[in-house]
Each structure stands twice: as C-alpha cells, then as structure tokens.
Write a structure and sequence with these properties.
The chain is an alpha+beta fold. The protein contains 10 helices and 7 strands.
Length: about 250
C-alpha cells in the first residue's frame, strides 16, 4: 500500500511540469502502463488529475482547491508564537508580529520584555504606519504602483525629530528596505524606543507578516539592538519555512 501511495504521489510533481501522456508517466515511475493507468484513474476520480481530449493528463482543479483551502486555514499567529517566545527568551526584549490588512498594519501577537519597562503596543492595534519597522516591510513588498499610491495618501505626523517627514522620504526608505530585506525604527515613533524587523514570507514569496524586536535606549543602544538582526532573521526564516513550506533565502 505504501508503495502504491508513493507512486501515486510521484505523479503530481511530474504533472506540475506540464501535461504528460500515459507512457511518460509510466516511464517516470518505472512501472508498466497498466499500473500507471490504475494510479491515474484513482487520482482522476478524486479530481487530483484531469485527462485532456488529447489523452494527456494534467493536474486537476480539486488539487488547486485543496491547496487554496489549506493556505486560507493556516494561522500564521499560531505557527509563529512559539518562535516569538523562543526569541524573547534568547534576547529578553519585546517581540511583535504584525500583518498588513485593509490598508493598516496591525499587531497580531506580542511577547513582553523581561524588564519592567513596558511598551504601549497592544494586539489588534494599528502601528504608526509611516515609522514602524514592521509597517515598512509590509509596504515595501507591495507592487510599485500600489506602494506609491498608498504612500502618497498617508499623513506624516512628526512623532519625533526622526519621524518620516513626507511621501518622498518614505518611498526612498521603502526602496532601501525592499533591497536589504529588513527594516528599522530608530526613535521614529518614540525617541527612547528602537526597533528592528524582518519579514515572514508566504508560499508565493510575498511578505505575509513582519516580526520585530524592540527595546528602550535605557536597556540597549540602537547599535546593540542591531546586533540581534542575524538572530531575528533566522527566527523569521524558521517561521517562513514552517508557514509556507519554502526555504528562505536570507543573505
């Protein structure tokens, strides 16, 4: 039975390369055509493969529907949370997870720091979109036309002297973030708080969420916080791998 299942599953990546006839399937599996035909018929009955009018087989619509349903039911917060806790245990600082939704970037998880100083951020609350490191990652990943249109509609409050002053400056910052693959907020929202963020990507390679490490200047300097970037990126990559099934390509 296990060999039969293995052979049937081996057909799917073959058909992902493009339609194939019975002989090609049999050759790839190293089996007689009658065996390949039985496997293909079973997969066809379940909607996982489809036989075209030219007698070649391709992947069936049911397979794509199952894949889409699986993606929609993935809970990125549930997957990420153990990783966020582990990162917090390693560095001691506040760790956030955020997503871009309906033109806002929202915190969906938070692990508090070990020290008495607490950040005001709350799960479900929008971030300061023009300065927050997680927001920069989410917006930088948007297609250029959408990114520009969104940025030009934003207001640019000067929370501190380091806040992003206008759309032109923000677009320049987002281009830098897109190129380097990570982002910072060094006193842009609160003078005393620094933050560094890394992306979590979905199966399509797009940014599905962004995670960050934040700490006040009284605990660590901005330069000291930036030394955690490799650890942060490894954590984000681990979440990406578990969430999407793809291997990240962190430099």
């Amino acid at each position: 039975m296990s060999q039969t299942v293995d052979r049937a599953l081996s057909i799917l990546p073959l058909l992902a390369e493009g339609p194939a006839d019975l002989g090609q399937v049999a050759d790839r599996l190293g089996v007689h055509k009658s065996t390949a035909l039985r496997l293909l018929r079973t997969l066809h009955e379940h909607g996982l493969v489809y036989r075209q009018s030219d007698q070649r087989y391709r992947l069936g619509a049911r397979l794509f529907a199952l894949a889409q349903e699986a993606v929609e039911n993935l809970d990125i917060r549930e997957i990420a949370h153990p990783h966020l806790v582990r990162l917090n245990e390693q560095c001691g600082h506040t760790v956030h997870l955020a997503v871009y939704e309906e033109n806002e970037v929202l915190y969906i998880d938070k692990v508090e720091s070990r020290y008495p100083v607490r950040m005001y951020s709350r799960i479900g609350k929008p971030v300061a979109i023009t300065v927050a490191a997680v927001a920069k990652l989410c917006l930088a990943d948007l297609p250029e036309a959408e990114r520009r249109a969104r940025v030009e509609k934003l207001d640019y409050p000067m929370y501190t002297s380091r806040s992003t002053p206008n759309a032109a400056a923000f677009l320049k910052e987002l281009a830098k973030v897109r190129e380097q693959g990570w982002a910072t907020d060094l006193g842009g929202h609160e003078e005393s708080i620094n933050c560094v963020a890394a992306p979590v990507r979905g199966a399509d390679g797009r940014v599905a969420a962004a995670m960050s490490v934040s700490a006040p200047n009284v605990v660590v300097t901005a330069d000291e916080l930036l030394t955690l970037l490799p650890l942060l990126r490894r954590t984000a990559d681990a979440i990406t791998s578990e969430y999407s099934g793809r291997s990240p390509t962190t430099a």
